[in-house]
Structure formats: C-alpha cells, structure tokens
C-alpha cells in the first residue's frame, strides 16, 4: 500500500506524540490497552487489568508470547523501563504529564506490573494511562529515536529523510492473520494538492492527514473519507491577564460573537462538529446542550460588550494573532474580525508565519489567537495537557493561575471516584466554570489524521487518537 503524507516524521520514539509521527506510531508499536471508537477499553498487550478497591493501584497482566521486532519476548521489565522513561521530564516527552499521577510500580513476575498512584484515581484516568503507554523494549530505549523498538504489526525497512519511509510486515506479530498487507510505503509530499493529485492519478492508494476541503472534493469524486473519534478542537485562546481581556464581560461576549457554524463551514469544509466546550463526542464530559445555549448571537455579544464598561478605544486596543501558514486559521480569524466590525469594534490581524507564530503562541505573547487542542476525547482533565488549559506552569496565564475555580474544578474531576451522579456533577461543574471564566472559547472540532482512500481499500480501524492503523487494511477482492 502506498500512502501519501504531508510532513516527515520527527523520530521513532512513541512518546514523541507529535502529529507528524501519527502515521507510524501504531504501526511500529502497540498499547497496553486500546479503546473502541466509543471509548470502551479493550485488551491489547495487556490481557487483563484489575483496579484496586481503594483506587490507589492497578495490576496489569501482559499477553503471553508477544515479541519485539528484535525477537525478544515482552516482559514486565520492558514495561518498567518504559515507565521509567516516561517519568523523565525530557525523555518522557508527551507522555510525561500523563505520568504525574503515578507514584511508583512493581513487577511481581515477568507478566505482571502493578502501578501505584499518588492518590485515589478515577478508573478512566488509569485507563487513559494504560492506553497511552506503548511498551518499548528495555534494550532499545537509549536508541529508540533512530531505531524503532516496538511490538507493532510492521517493522522499519528503510527511511530516506524528507522523501519516504518503508515498513514491512512483522512475521512474528501476535495478532492472528495480521497485518494483511506485506508492505506500507509512505511518500512525503510538500503540500496537500500534490498528494491529492497523486491519489487521483493512481500513484497512491491513500492520503493521510490531508486537508478537509480536498477530502470533500475527493469524496464527491468517489474516494473514501475516513474520520476517526479523536479530532482536535479549535479554540479561541485568550490571554485573560492583559487588557481588554482581563474584563470578564468582554471575554464572555465572545461565547456569542463566534459564528461556529460559519467557522466550521468556511474554515473546515464542514468536516467536524460545532462545539462550545473543549470535548469531542467520545469524551465523558461532552454536553451538546452548551452548543445551543451559546449559539451565535451578535445582540447578546453587544449586550455583554456594553456591560463590560469598556470604552470603544479600550475594546479595540488589541490585535488578533494569526497563524498565517495555516489557511483555516487565517480564514476564521477574518470571520471574527468581520463580526467585531459589525458591532463597530475594529481590530487588526497580527499575521505571523511558521516558527515566529509558534514561538508567540507557546510563550503566551498574544492577547488572543486561534489554536487546536487535543486529548479532548479522553478523561476530561487531560485537556490540561494543552498550554492554554494548564493548571500550573501555564505559559499564557502564568502562575499563580488567575482562575483558581478552574484549577479546583479540574482537581474535583481528578478526585471524584463515584457514584456516577457525583462524577457527572463534577463534569457539569467543570463545564460551567469553563464558560464563565472564558479564557478559552471552543468553536468546532476538526479532523486530525483525516484519511482519503481509494475505493479499492477496506478494513479501516478507527483509533481513539486518529493514528493510522494499517494492520487491518487490505485490498478488496
């Protein structure tokens, strides 16, 4: 199978959970457990897991007979080495923050790992950890960035930096009759138009991570468009420590000013869902009622702008930071600029390209900007792994956090173990705090890892994070 992607990978470390690595991670590695598209936990490298009655630990049983690509058998020592890597602030990379709940772990035997937590921990938070941990062979941890060390359905055959990556089937793979195809070849394209043209000409069977607008066009031409349960959510990020956004009424007005339907339609060709909260439908905190409650309402926005008590000059004293490299971000920023102008509030767009924008966003050097957030389909407090939602060391809002009620709401979610009514109440409270504080205002979900494929392919597996899972894909007879 020949797959087109739009960027080269960073490295082969599964803890480098960057979108450019999404085509490879779940083909070179397996997780301890997996989620169905609906968020149900199912076995993978772990065949069983038992959560202690006091919610202070989970005991994990490893599958028998699983081998790494090197031929070595998976044991609890590999899990221990993987967990040790994940707890290192530098080596743990994107998994490090998820490990914050872990106290330590033990390995009673070769097939058992017991993970102990710092405090009583909700079931779903434990399961998210098990799903996010992808075992690395202990002997390969030091070289994993350049040499894959997983148990996945495919092995690395070759890589030409900036050009292509070839994977071949793992002949010792533990899942019966998988992978279906003997080879997956990734070709790196400089832009979406070139990749789409190669698909149409028959040079590719699939484009992974392409643009929504191209996907809609190709779908109309008979190609398959596969959307997973793990989208990103576009968020209007606000620096609430700077005027005029230090005024609560002024911030809250944007809940009604943002034309979410228009943003989704124009920015993302309608591929996604309108949302007023930072959750995908698979999240246990998802609540569709907020979308209707905070629907586009310029009159309500005008009312709140008036209630803010700010002068016209004060309300116009800011620029909207725009990621000029991304066409969707530019378009939706223009929509907001026009909506403000309709209310006689005139602002400028501060358009920055590439690294200049990324540096400004990650350092909080802005008053407002759009940016996608992830982990929105899992345990609700995972949203705090995103910079604008961090409860500590927040690069935008700084320390101490200016919204202690938000920090407390996240902590309540993390410490409410049951019954179900209490858990739901904790989620509802967090949602209410999010819209009242309004330091981040979601507009819509949008596709990450979008698949556009030839009608000749079948057998797609939907991953909870929208990573590409190639082991079940084959050609129709």
From TrEMBL:
GO molecular function, one term: peptide transmembrane transporter activity
InterPro entries membership: Peptide/Ni-bd, SBP_5, SBP_5_CS, SBP_5_dom
UniProtKB keywords: Signal
Superkingdom in the source lineage: Bacteria
Pfam name, any one: SBP_bac_5
PROSITE patterns: SBP_BACTERIAL_5
One record GO biological process: peptide transport
Subcellular locations according to the entry: Periplasm
Span of domain Solute-binding protein family: 41-378
GO CC terms in record: ATP-binding cassette (ABC) transporter complex; outer membrane-bounded periplasmic space
Record has tRNA processing as a keyword: no
Family of this protein: Belongs to the bacterial solute-binding protein 5 family.
PANTHER family reported in the protein's UniProt record: PERIPLASMIC BINDING COMPONENT OF ABC TRANSPORTER
Protein name: Family 5 extracellular solute-binding protein
UniProt organism field: Nitratireductor pacificus pht-3B
């Amino acid at each position: 199978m020949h797959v087109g992607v739009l960027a080269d990978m960073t490295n082969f470390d599964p803890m480098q959970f960057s979108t450019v690595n999404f085509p490879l991670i779940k083909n070179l590695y397996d997780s301890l457990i997996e989620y169905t598209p609906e968020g149900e936990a199912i076995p993978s490298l772990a065949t069983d897991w038992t959560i202690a009655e006091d919610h202070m630990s989970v005991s994990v049983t490893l599958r028998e007979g699983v081998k790494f690509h090197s031929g070595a058998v998976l044991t609890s020592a590999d899990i221990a080495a993987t967990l040790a890597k994940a707890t290192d602030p530098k080596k743990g990379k994107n998994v490090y923050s998820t490990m914050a709940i872990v106290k330590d772990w033990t390995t009673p035997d070769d097939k058992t790992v017991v993970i102990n937590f710092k405090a009583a921990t909700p079931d779903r938070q434990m399961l998210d950890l098990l799903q996010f941990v992808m075992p690395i062979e202990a002997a390969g941890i030091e070289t994993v960035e350049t040499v894959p060390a997983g148990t996945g359905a495919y092995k690395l055959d070759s890589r030409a930096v900036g050009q292509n990556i070839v994977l071949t089937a793992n002949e010792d793979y533990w899942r019966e009759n998988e992978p279906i195809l003997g080879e997956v070849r990734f070709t790196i394209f400089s832009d979406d138009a070139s990749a789409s043209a190669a698909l149409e000409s028959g040079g590719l069977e699939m484009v992974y991570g392409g643009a929504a607008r191209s996907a809609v066009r190709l779908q109309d031409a008979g190609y398959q468009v596969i959307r997973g349960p793990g989208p990103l959510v576009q968020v209007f990020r606000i620096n609430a420590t700077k005027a005029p956004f230090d005024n609560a009424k002024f911030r809250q007005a944007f809940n009604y000013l943002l034309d979410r339907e228009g943003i989704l339609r124009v920015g993302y060709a309608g591929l996604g869902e309108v949302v007023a909260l930072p959750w995908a439908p698979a999240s246990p905190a998802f609540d569709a009622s907020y979308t209707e409650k905070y629907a586009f309402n310029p009159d309500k926005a005008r009312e709140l702008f008036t209630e803010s008590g700010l002068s016209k000059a004060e309300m116009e004293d800011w620029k909207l930071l725009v990621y000029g490299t991304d066409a969707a971000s530019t378009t939706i920023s223009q929509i907001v600029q026009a909506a403000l102008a309709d209310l006689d509030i005139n602002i400028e767009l501060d358009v920055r390209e590439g690294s200049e924008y990324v540096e400004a966003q990650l350092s909080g050097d802005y008053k407002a900007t759009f940016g996608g957030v992830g982990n929105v389909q899992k345990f609700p407090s995972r949203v705090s792994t995103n910079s604008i939602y961090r409860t500590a060391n927040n690069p935008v809002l700084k320390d101490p956090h200016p919204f202690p009620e938000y920090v407390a709401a996240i902590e309540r979610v993390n410490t409410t173990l049951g019954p179900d009514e209490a858990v739901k109440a904790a989620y509802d409270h967090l949602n209410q705090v999010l819209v009242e504080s309004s330091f981040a205002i979601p507009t819509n979900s949008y596709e990450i890892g979008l698949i556009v494929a030839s009608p000749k392919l079948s057998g797609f597996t939907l991953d909870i994070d929208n990573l590409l899972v190639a082991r079940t894909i084959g050609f129709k007879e």
